[in-house]
Structures are given as C-alpha cells and as structure tokens.
Amino acid sequence: MTEYDSQLVEGSDFSLVEERVLEFWKKNNVFKKSVENRDEKRRFVFYDGPPFANGLPHYGHLLTGFIKDTVARYKTMAGFRVDRRFGWDCHGLPAEMLAEKELGVSGKVAIEKFGIEKFNQHCRSSVMKFSKEWKQYVDRQSRWVDFDNDYKTMDLPFMESVMWSFYQLWQKGLVYESIKIVPYSWACQTPLSNFETRMDNAYRQKTSKTVTLAFELLDKPKSLLVNNITSYKILVWTTTPWTLPCNLALAISPNIKYCGAIVNKEMYIFSKAYLKDFESHCKKNNIEYSVYSGDICYSSLEYLSYKPVFDYFIGTKNTFKILVADFVMEGEGTGIVHIAPGFGEDDFVLCKKQGIPNIDDKDTSKLLSTICPIDDGGKFTDKISDFVNMHVFDTNDQIISMLKGKNLCFKTDQYLHNYPHCWRTDTPLIYRAMSSWYVEVTKIKDKMMDLNKTVNWIPGHIRAGQFGKWIENAKDWAISRNRFWGTPLPVWKSDNPNYPRVDVYGSIKKVFDDVKALEEDFDISIDDLHRPYIDSLIRPNPDDPTGKSMMRRVTDVFDCWFESGSMPYAQLHYPFENKELFENYFPADFITEYIAQTRGWFYTLFVLSTALFDKPPFKNCICHGVVLDTQGQKLSKRLNNYADPMEMFKRYGSDAMRFLMLSHTVLHGGDLLLDKDGVMIRDVLRNVIKPIWNSYNFFTIYAEIDKVKARVISSISEVYNIMDKYIICECISTVRSIFNSMEEFDQNAGNCGYNIKAACNSIVQFFEVLNNWYIRRCRSRFWSSEITQDKIDAYNTLYTVMYYIIKVSAPFLPAITEAIWQGLNFQEEESVHLSLLPSIERITLEDEDRKNIQYMKLIINICSCVLSIRNVKNIRVRQPLNKITIYVYNDNDLLNLPIEYQNILLDEINVKNIVFKSSIEDIASFQLKLNFPELGKRIPEKVKNLISLLKNNQWEVLGNNQLMLGVKEGEHYILDSNEYMLTLKVHSEFGSTIVLDQSLLGVLVLDNSLTNELIMEGIARDVVRVIQQSRKDNKFNISDKIDVVIQTEDVIAQESVKIWYEYIIQQTLSLSLIVQENLNNDGMAEYYKTAMKDRKLTVFIKRL
C-alpha cells in the first residue's frame, strides 16, 4: 500500500479530476457535514439572492456564485456554521412574459379572457422550468448550496411574511396610495419602479420627431405697446407630439426673458435664447419677420387663455391657461412648455396645484380617464377620437400633419436623445399617471444614509458614491403592479366612496393580537394567496350602516422587487416561525451581486430593513462587475458571443474559471471581457492550476520512489537548511497575507477584508516561488540516491508547506485542493473543506527568520536582474561566467550577505565569483531633477537659488526619503520625496540596479568574458539539458536509468564531455556515457536521437 495517492497524478485532464472530487463530496455528504459539524451558535449568515429559474444560468450568475461559495467555504473553514439555502424568484414579469409567450396570449385583457386561474397555474408550473439545469450548473461549478431546503417566493409561508411586512409599513405610516406619474411598460402592461429605469442599460439612444408649434392667445398680453397685430401666438417645442392631444395648459418661467417677432402681423412669443433659432429658420425658409423691440415679462403672459390645438377637452373646467413654473428651463426649446398632466411628473404636480382639471381627487377613475386617455397597451381610448386604438408612438406623424393642416406647425426636427426603455422587453417606456401604492422612502432616507455608513462596501467608493448618492436622491417606491402572478396586496377597500374604509391584513391565521388576520375576518380557511382565489374574499363594509357596500381587495400584486427585498425574513417565515434565529443573526454578515443591484436588490433590502427593523440588511457587500465579450458587448444568444459554461467546465474544469474571475478586477466593479474560445480560462489552467498540481506531483512521485512518510513540521526550530527555512517562512507569510486580505481593514481601499483578488494573487506568487525557486533549487536533494537526514528534511518541508497552502487555498480552488488533500494523506479530516484554516501561531518567526527571508528575497531579486542581462545580451543561462561585481549603496545588508546565500546566488546565476565594492560612484551616477511646480508652491522665492545649487551639484540624500540641496553649514533646503526625482544611471551595458521594496541597494555588473574552461562547462550543461529533454519527449519515467551515446566531430565538445563526465551521468541518471566522432548505426535502433542545433552534436539515449 502506498503512502501517497498518485492515482490522479498521471492525468492532465483536470475536468476529470474535478468530476471525481464532486463524486467524492456527494458520496460522503461532505457539504452537509461542513455545515452540521460547526457550532450552531457561531453562525456566519449570507443571503443568496433568488434568481429566476425560467432561463439557464449565464456567466454573471456563475461569477456571483463563485464569490458566494468562496466566502462561505472560507468562513466555514474559519469555524463558522454557514447555512447556504438556495432561493428562487418565482413571481413577476419574467414569469408572466414567459407564460404569455407559451400560451399565445398577450396583454391583460387577453389574460382575463383566458382566465386568471389558468394563467397563474401555467406560471406556477413553468417558473421552475430550468431548476434541474440550474442545479447541474451550480453543482458543476463546485458550488455548495442547499437545494433540498430551498425557498420560493411563491410559497405560502414566504408570501405571508411579505404580507406581514406590508402590514408593518402600513402601521408605521410608511405606505400610501396616490396618483403619480410613473414609468410604464406598455409592452408588459405594468408600471415600473423608478430604480428599474436605472438598471443596466435601460437608457439608450432614441430618435424622436420634435415639433415647434404655435398656440394662439385668446387675450392680448398685458403692457405690449404695439399696433396692427392681428393675433398673438405662443411658440412651444416638444419632443412628444403624441401628448399634444392631451394638452391642458402651457408653462412659462419667472426666470426667463421673453421676446416677440412679427410675421404677417402675427406676433410669435418665445424666450430670448430662442431668437437665433427663430431667425435662422425664417431666413432658411424666406420668411420675412421683424423683432419686437421691447421685452415681454412673464407676468404679462400669466393666466392668459389660449385656443387649444385639439378640441378633445373643450369644456373641461379650468384648462388652457398659461401658468408660471420653476421647472421651465432656458436652453433647449422656446422657453415655453406644453403641459399634459397625464404624461409628465412636473406637469401633473403643476396642474394638481392649480386644480387642472377641476375633478375631485377621490374620483380616481374619472380623473385618470381624463388626463391619461390611453389603455393598458399604450393606445389612445375613444376620448381621443381621431387616434382611437392607435399606439401613442405611432401617432406622431399624423399629429404633425394635422398641425400643419391647421397652420400651427412652425418647424419639425429629428432629435437624438437618451430615453428609458423597459428592462424586460427593450421597448420605450411611457411616463403616465396611474394610481399606485407607495412606500414613503423619503421619510426614512436620512436613516438609510446613516445606516449605509456602517456597511463595509467592496469596493469602498460605493458607500458614498453609487449607493450613497442613490439613497440621497431616493423617491417614494411604487410597489404595486396591476398584474396577476405575484403576492397580492393585502388591502381591501370599500366599493362605495360614500362609506370609505381600508383594511390591511398582516397574517392568514390569527397569530398576533396586533396583526389583522384574513381568516378571522373572512371566516374561511386559506391555503393559497394567489389570484383569483384571494380576490374572491369579499365581506360587508362594517362602516356602512346600510349594509350594501362591500369590502373588496384591490387587484394589484406586489412588485417582485418587494418580495426579493423581503427575503431575509420571508425565507424563514418570520415572525410566524424562526423568530429567535432571525433576530439573533440579522443583519447578514455578507452579500454579493453585480454592481447594478445598488439600484435593485441591495436598495430594496435596505429600504425594507430600515423601515421594519431600523438596521442595515447586511454588514459586508461585494459589488462585482459585469462579464462581457471581448468587444465589451453584453453576452447574448443573438450575438453568439459566448460558449456554454458547461462546455468550458468540460474542457478546462470549474476551478480555472473560478480563479480567473476571483483574481480579476471584475470583483471590484470592473468588467471582465471573456473570450468565446476560453483562452483566458485555459491560461489560468496552465499558469495557476498546473503549477500547483506540479508541486504536488513532484512530491508524490519522489516520496513514493523513496517510500518516505513525511510529517508536518511543528516548529521552525526543527529546520536547519536555509532553503527549508525560507520556504516555510514564505509559506507562513503567504497564509498570513491571505488572512489579512480576507479579514483585515484596508485603509487604502476603505473597506475591511473580503479582498479575494489579493488573496488569489498571494496564492499565485507563493507557488511561483515554491516551484521556480525552492523545488528547482532543491531537486538534487530529492534526487539523491541515499535517504539522508537532509533529504528527509526536504520532504518534510515540502509536505509542510503543502499542508498550509492547500488548506488556505481551498476556498479559492476547492476541487484541485481537495484532490491534493486526498493524495497527500495528512491524517486529518476526510476533506480539506471539513478542516479548519491553518493555525500559523505554532510556527512563530524570530527576527533571524525574518532576516533570512529578506536575504533570500534579495538574492532572488539579483538573480532576476542577472537573467534579464543574459537575455538582453544573448548569453545562455547554462553558460558559466567568471564574476559578478556588486557595488553597494549606503552600506546596506548586501555587504553582510552571509556566505551560504552568496553560494546560492552564484550557483543560481551560474557565475564563479562574487566581488563586493562600496564605491557605487565608480560604476553609476545619480541624476537629480527638481519638481518645480511643487517647489513653486512652497518656496517660490527660492526657485532661482535651487537651480544654482543644482547646477553646482550641491546636494545630499538624507533618510526618510528626504534630500538636502545646498551645504549643511551654509544655505540649504530640505526637500520631500514629492519635490524631487532621483535616478541612477549605470555606466555599463552589463549592469543593473538592485532595488528591493522600492529601496535602492546597489548596482551589479556582470563579467561577460569567457575562458576555454567556462566554454566547455557551458557545453556540458547544454548536453545535460538535451538529454533531459529527450527523456521527457520520449516519456521516460523520472527513475528510469539510461545509456547515452554522443556523436560529435567538435573537438572542444568531445573534451568537454570527457572533463564533465561525472557531472553529466549524475544529472541524467546515466549508467554509461560514450563519446564517438563517427557512429556506426549498428545496434542503435533502440536509441532515441536528439540533435543539438547550435553545435554539431547528436545525443542518443536508451532506457535500461
């Protein structure tokens, strides 16, 4: 029986590795154990926002899921109980639109004719259409969620909690019914919330036909000193000609100066700012005009009556007058606005204040049919007889044509502007008057702003930026929808306005004395709150002594955003159940969604949480960005610009996709431009996951060969080899860095922890050091044929760092770390995800250890500089050089570099000798530049003196990044780091500066001269490289012994192989090595042949 599992090591199909891991988790109930094994009293709560299940998951869902799963796994390993209950958003427009499509019905009238009961039954059955596929996607992305205990917004307990929350708002005086102008989707036949018009790209460019038309005054403006004028006309510009049939007033501004122009004895009145446009149009069309010399004050126009351009509202009281309003702006248009109170917020408020039209507000139906004569589909009613049953947007041309026929059209134009569209149907919205129920957000927005300051937003700028500003400008929230499939508003009203009464209910059964219950008043058992059953609950109006009026439910249902905003308590059926559980663990510890949810789910959560509980709904929130294609376009089936995520999982595995997303700036609100072919995911597999696997692979192969049972080192005092000390210290430092990224306050970012991207970077950097420094430098220790203590120490060291780094990496790479955990047999929990995060306290670092880390980082830095010089100067890495000279700056640690580190450095850079010098000026010179803009702010009168001192080279570098210009005994100035720039010019083409942690340590210079001895050693090293590559290309096992034959006519090469014979056979596991000038091919059939292209030399190898 082997100590370590190498079953998975041989394959490079990481998708297959992951599938085996998924099966292991499923077979052993690892997810369930990870939750149940933690203390119930030590919970970490996160909210899983409910998606719609009537479509397949996309990359945005996967990104959100990766973040949720990573944080949940991390906190589980930190010792918390993390329930991960999945939820489904079942109600609302997405479900209804799909049902309409599948049933072949369109619009509310058609649905009512089809039958609300049948329609809602279809919604119920189709809304979970893709739930199985969702589970497959979520499971395959290695995400753990509880599907068995999921919640659905259409379930009775959830809906009852939504009812309760509305009742509480009603009791607090935070709910009211009102007629207001709302964004309306005629395609969906429902109003939208104001924040829904700010979702994603709801605003898009739209070309509208505009018209400037003349309204004829019935009265002469006051104080106008002009004669022979036959009529006075007001010029009005509008981008919505379709609203002109509903015009009831005009508006002017007290802050605008008006003027007049006379054409054919008719005076046209408009703002002075419009005069240039007026003149330009007249000249272009050969219209003779004269400009009235005087000013026209707004007061001379106020309350004047005018002749309506359409006669649909003639006879309506208190209409067709000029009103004064502050919202009329000078700039675009004529400075005079046409007012249609049914189609504009400012228009509605102005007319309501002026009593236009003169209709009692209580007669809601009559008022709405008067000011907003369109049906649910956006078509004019018979009130507008010329355009009845025409969609409002289709009437513009005919309206303009009619205006021209009446000689009222002054000019028309095309106008390109940003216009809100329905987020579901991409159709332009209508702003129209409707009666809706509102949450009075404006009453609580100050409290919301205070609570927002307590939330840890990632990125930090969201707090005062996107979310903070949204709250600051919050409007009351329209929460009712005149639709069918949703939680019904629990409001019953008297059907006789003479006996008004409103009943609001907060529960089904009588549970609480202070909460009104449906079953108590209607004396019926209720097991479904949906329409049409709930609509059938009718009872006599208790306030009507005649007994004739009835209490009937308002037909509206809740905005589905209200339901998802109720999720924290409704998923638990609070307050009817789980009261203690909710109250003890609210608000949530963590939440994440994409950044637009600052105006969606995050916002609705915040409104309801503030209103109901006077608390924020969550403590920490990651607002991630959007996944787009490489052109920055939204991923869509129509554009065919993305691959099925399942195909990517099959090709590269989910860990690669996870790590790509977690390590990207998309986690901080940026955009991830994902290529369709998965090249970016493949690169993560190559550059991140394979190096991790290779380190595991290296250990298991050699440990199995040597039959070594490694152990986890418990104290740094047990470690003697400096390479071992370094990698353990580096590992502990990495673990601590990940802890800090996930948990510590970041002053620069302005937030606390949850810096997943930084944690991922730490993992990558560590494995770069582990593979390309420690393992590569220590290979000879593992290759040694004898089981020495040094070899055992190397095994124990590698085993130890794998133990620590695999544990701390598990939340970020759950599948691959699980496979490695199983293979390394750490004799702990059966799954890495059941273990706790590594305790680094038992491996404490002394000052000497930290010094050793700095020394190792220093030589790694120097190695990097030398390799760069070799690369630029085309000097092979395997070519030994004679000497490196290091010129030390300011007597730093380089002068005290211990001999063992010097030896590592020389061996790594393939150089024979190292020389230290303290006179850096022998090889380099400093060049000083002054930042005159900064110095000019501080000491403007001394700038000339500074220039003189600079020219005389009178300066000295001080500590703390300061510089003295001048001489200490005489005139001098102390400059801070932002007031100067110091550069070092190296006077050797084989030289480089040595900089560590942004501090200059010195300059190195490489001696590139070659002797015959150095050349021959270089050839020997190249021969080793060729042999090793041949072994790999021909799939030899690492432990395979070989015979080598070298054929070459190159005398120097022959001599080199003879001199370095022992080195070559030792490095290549060769039992024999023969060099021949001419080779007889007899007996060479079993050999593999490889040629050295840069030398006339051919290598033949044979497995023994």
Query: If classified by CATH, what would the architecture of the domain at 203-420 be?
Result: Alpha-Beta Complex
Low-confidence stretches: 7-11
Q: How would you write the strand order of the largest sheet?
A: 10-8-9-6-5-13
Number of strands: 41
Largest sheet: 6 strands, mixed
Q: Write down the Rg.
A: 39 Å
How would you classify the helix and strand content by structural class?
alpha+beta
Which homologous superfamily in CATH is the superfamily of the domain at 203-420?
Valyl/Leucyl/Isoleucyl-tRNA synthetase, editing domain
Instruction: Note the beta-strand portion.
Output: 15-25%
Number of helices: 33
Measured distance between first and last alpha carbons: 26 Å
What is the global morphology?
globular
Proportion of helical residues:
25-40%
CATH topology of the domain at 203-420: Isoleucyl-tRNA Synthetase, domain 2
Cofactor: Zn(2+)
Pfam families: Anticodon_1 (PF08264), DUF5915 (PF19302), tRNA-synt_1 (PF00133)
EC number: 6.1.1.5
Domain Aminoacyl-tRNA synthetase class Ia: 21-666
